[in-house]
Queue: 4 jobs
Job 1
Amino acid sequence: MMSHPHFSASAALDAAFDEASAKLFHPKGTVRCSGEPLFRSRAARDLGCILDVDQTVAAWLCLPLEFETNLGPHVPDFLVEYEHGKPWLLDAVEDEESPELKEGAAVAGFNYRGVPRKEIEAGFRLANARDLLRYAHSRTPLNDRIRMLSALDEAGSLTIAECLHIFTEVKPMTGISWMALHQLISLDLDEEMINPETVIRRFQC
């Protein structure tokens, strides 16, 4: 479980928390956010959605720390822990990342990247992630999980339409969404919007 690094309280960090605490962006649910989900912008919330469906992400933390730059102190949107490799500091940015922020993060000992809005919004992944995360606070009961995984073991893959009858305790898309978010099953989130013909498979690490 990620936690905030031990840095002394600062005006910049306090201001970032105050700014984010005054805003609310949907969907409210997260699955890999360690700590309170706090976002200063719509773009940051959208990047959080992308992180939650990135199979290489183990956990992410909002407004994790402050580091010094030539532009003054900066608080990034996220500290992201990947399954392999060093953690990264990420910011959702309008266009291109700031060289000053990248240099400041490097001096502080962190990898840094500013993720442009056009990358966050590219293709269908963001829209599909938003749809799935509506069900982040739900849970697929054990009976339905076993039935779903058994059907996939037998068939290899199934479309969403072919799975609708499997779920008896929760609504089908509630069950499918929760299982996808928790990496029990996988869906293609990039080619098109999730639809009855979307193919479901067992999650493969």
Note: The mean pLDDT is 93.
Job 2
Amino acid sequence: MKSILCGMAILAGLALPSCQSEKSAKVAAATKTESTTETNSPTAAIAADAKPADAATILARPQVPILCYHQIRNWKASDSKAAKDYIVQEQDFRDQMKMLADSGYHTILPDQLYNYLNYGAKLPSKPIMLTFDDTDLDQFTVAAPTMKKYGFKGVFFIMTVSLGRPRYMSKAQVKELSDNGHVIGSHTWDHHNVKKYAGEDWVTQIEKPTKTLEEITGKPIHHFAYPFGLWNKQAIPELKKRGFKSAFILAEKRDDTDPLYTIRRIIASGYWSPRTLHNSIVNSF
């Protein structure tokens, strides 16, 4: 049920001194404190008379690096070579987060990105977005605590059919992530390919799962990630009708008419060292 590119069930070595870990966390926390409300608030820095940008203006703005993670766990003997591309081992993930903190990156959330793209709102220096697809339990038990160490927040795109199943998050854990300042996004009911939707599929795959997530979190759900990173033009008006402000693909060309519904991400490969990840960020955005 995981994606080919952004969600299939299963489908390293910038070794900075360990004694720097505590320092990195303190620096990240201090930097976060110094960041102003203007750059960190999802609704700040928008002029009262600001008008939404046209597609050309949005496309012309520098892209914010967005990483897509799936499983955060150690490899098993049964994992295939292809599967390992979607499984970032626990220490590798910790090293990657430390690299981002040491490199001065600040995590942002989807409303901040939306306001930047649509209204030109300011962002913190070296913004980056961390996204997680498919509801895997290790995102809650490993990724979230590691991110907390550096003051990072992320976006968790939830596939609701998996809630409460073994190796997946429970409703209570999803709510805890939301309560702790992370953003919960929609990722369909059972990861069905959006390109194949017809008739009631929009209700089954989009409306009902989104309402479920809103009931769990007590917050509106405005952001969506396409299963497999696959989309078509027919999907965009359907998402708009259902109140979505943005939707995320993978490393494909953005739509010239509706770039807010085709925001690019790159998959953080399980084979990448922190240095390789940093180079990919620089080269991809």
Note: Confidence is low (pLDDT under 50) at residues 1-24, 26-40.
Job 3
Amino acid sequence: MALLIVVTAVVLATDRLDRSAPEPLGPAPGAWTVVPHTGLSAWVDVYDWTVELGGPHPSVTVDDVDAMADAGVQTMYIQTAHTRSTTAGVMEPERLARLIQRAHNNRMHVVAWYLPTLEDVDADLRRLTESAALEVGGLAVDIESTAIVDVAERNRRLLDLSTRLRAALGPDKVIAAITPSAVHVQVVNPSYWPAFPWAALADLYDVLLPMSYWTIRTGELHDGEAYTSGNLERIRASAQDPGIPIIPVGGLAEDASLDDLAGMVTAIDEHASPGGGLYDWASSTPEQWAALAPLRGLQWPVPATVDGHGS
């Protein structure tokens, strides 16, 4: 049955989806572009690869990076810093450098990511700029912390951090915002983050990466295709920017069925999104990556759509 579902996932792909499973595109030279955010991506957090927060035997090692490449993953998103760490900047730089280099050896892109709490914007900015200085092809800011309870102040700090980050990196480097699910903030729990600043973020970032985790929903929302479609539709309308790439992150992997991953692929195709990812690598299976294989090779701008924002 699992094999049948995987085959079905591939068949669902339209002509826009590349069935030929091309070689990974490899690190792009020069300035950061949209390219590392397109295609098929896997996510790794500090609880998987560091000793400080993950324990003496990390669950993600350089061997896992090889396995990602074998599974067709084109980009590794790796969390590079954490507010719980005793390190003020990038965590365990030597171990991190080995993972990044192994990804490059496998012709994979690497994008660094970090979750700011906004409690100390200066500290958040330092961790982000240090992450950007690594041998990576992009940076993504994980926007989900509600440590600042007052929503107006939270939004003010978020936009202050984002504006300062853009100024520090310059106008030509493509940066991504990892956002909450629009279905979450607009339908499931509007009190979680009222007046989420979609349009302002679309002005400051070049790519939006919504956490489209249908696996934590119940009822009709526990559906890979419907939930992914709902997020892409709502964010496109809320961002008020027809040219910004919106690339969903599916998950959580340990609870994602192959049927739902096939549905996610269908939704990505129907909404002309240039890629997708799965959170996270450590809890995923080879069968899941096979189901997501049609996402490999997707590009931005998508043929017959508006030109990309920031590409």
Note: The two ends are 41 Å apart (CA to CA).
Job 4
Amino acid sequence: MHPAIFISVSVLLGILFGLQEWFSLRHLGYHVNPTIFLESWGFQFFLWGTISWLLWRLLGAQVQRAGVVAILVGFLPLSIVVSAAEEMIWVLAFPSLPLNHPDLPYWHRLSIYLYEELLNNVVIFWCAFFLFRGLGYYQRYREHERTAAQLEIQLANARISALRMQLNPHFLFNAMNSISSLMRSDLEAADTMLEQLSCLLRITLERGEAQLIPLRDEMEFIELYLAMQAQRYAGRVEQSLHFDPELYDALVPAMLLQPIVENAFVHGLSKIDANGKLDVDVRKRGEKVSVRVVNSGLGLRPHESHHSNGHGLGLANVRSRLKLHYGEQATLSIEELDRRQVEVSILFPLEMPHASQESVSRYGELWSAR
């Protein structure tokens, strides 16, 4: 609706009408200079472009709100007055028209053109009126769409934040219980574990409300968490962590791995006394990220399906957050590989940040602790 663009388009439309009329007369055998047609039609649509833009600029709000009474009482008389005024200016600007009566006085020429053109001018006015009214409806529709989309995003973020808030105390209570149990048997290990817990809490606070974080940050968190568990399960669990270096900067949901790994310890590894194994594997699969966590233990409980949809707060929380982030494009499944091994698999769309950060992982391809 910039005046220069709007009025220029209007003048161009008038020139096209002028060319059409000139070609029609040429076809009928009349030889007339095209300049007068281009000038008269161009100027007429210049006037209407200016009038229409002023209508939008000065009366746009009234155009949007006008009911039947306002249209009949206000805009209908206005359309007649404006149409007559436009014709008066146009006739004044072209004293040589009409071509077959160039010497007629102004008022006589004006009466001729008002008789011929007034209805057309009124139609042009109302075309502009309903065009602007339609634009107003479209703008409000788009505004409602934007508002609804923003509310939907805010609702999704609120749900994700609530789920994150649910995880933090759950993780903290479990960690404190582990430290408490170590206090009776290994004071030094409990002290080390407490320091590691403080590091994890600092990382959590530094992340703030970020919902998607680089994989390298998630790996830093899970590395510290596994170091804590190594203190508690000293000599009982062999841990290995592998991730694809290509995914170093890939964005993943915050606290994606910790609930799954914690679930592996609580429901599997804590049930055995020795030779436990935990494998975490994160790699690229096409345009998606594949996460696999395999742990030894007692397998799934007998009454659960071998292809369960997950159990426990941790997996339910992760599944809910994946659905909020990715909808149906993400999957989470838990499966018993054999009677002593359970695998949790996650698949979700690969998303890279707009501005690439570092390109080399400081963790390497393989990290292991015993």
Note: The chain has a mean pLDDT of 80.
